[in-house]
Design brief:
The protein is mainly alpha-helical and 230 residues long. The chain has 11 helices and 2 strands; from the N terminus they run αααββαααααααα. It has a two-stranded antiparallel sheet with strand order 1-2. The radius of gyration is 21 Å and the shape is elongated.
Length: 230
């Protein structure tokens, strides 16, 4: 294992260890090397290793027990949504298989959020969604449209007034925000993306119409991203 450059050492140690656990280099139930051995292997001080391991424990990727060292946990069975950011983007590149699963979950969440938003939205939220839909259609470029898409989906979830949906969306959003350019495919060819149908159904308090319109919109975006990743 190559030593780490001496910049942001605790963060680099953490990222390296996360990648090793998620990639299976260290299998579930296996002991991690002792902290002193990790410090020597990575060429960093013990304080950096301790901080990196502490963050692994916070993600529930390892258990540290007195007399038993650090054992890797089964992150697929025991991890939380906060592991998604690291799992989807192993080594800086999107993992296509896991990205597909995240996109599927995101599509279903948005569809149900749109249905709830139709029943629970405020007049101001309905007006904002209609305005954002118009601005996306008229956006001068994909980067601007991507920012507006983010605002549109965030407003839809906020209008659903469901805390669990919001917290799940926050974890998925972290994946999105850290990989903006690869996700930009979702807003290409905007004439084919009917944000207006979603906004209109939510504005009219048509829950079924909102769900159907969002399933279609998010489905088209999902397919475009998968094509771009292929």
């Amino acid at each position: 294992m190559a030593q780490l450059a001496r910049t942001s050492l605790p963060d680099q140690v953490f990222r390296r260890l996360v990648a090793d656990v998620i990639s299976g280099r260290y299998a579930a139930g296996e002991r991690l090397p002792a902290q002193r051995a990790l410090a020597s292997e990575l060429g960093v001080n013990m304080a950096s290793v301790r901080e990196g391991v502490k963050r692994l424990e916070q993600l529930r990727l390892v258990d540290t027990r007195h007399g038993d060292g650090m054992r890797v946990r089964d992150w697929r069975a025991q991890g939380g949504l906060d592991v998604l950011v690291h799992a989807v983007a192993q080594g800086g590149a999107l993992d296509p298989a896991l990205a597909r699963e995240v996109l599927e979950a995101h599509r279903l969440l948005l569809a149900e959020a749109a249905a709830l938003a139709a029943a629970r939205r405020s007049p101001e939220q309905a007006e904002l969604l209609a305005r954002l839909a118009r601005e996306i259609a008229a956006a001068p470029g994909d980067e601007a449209a991507q920012g507006l898409d983010f605002a549109f989906m965030a407003t839809t979830i906020e209008a659903a007034r469901n805390l669990a949906f919001s917290l799940i969306a926050n974890s998925i959003r972290d994946v999105y925000l850290q990989r903006l350019e690869p996700f930009r495919a979702i807003v290409t060819r905007r004439a084919e993306l009917d944000y207006g149908a979603v906004a209109s159904a939510i504005g009219e308090r048509d829950a079924e119409g909102a769900r159907a319109a969002m399933i279609h919109l998010a489905g088209v975006q999902e397919q475009r991203l998968l094509e771009a990743m292929a």
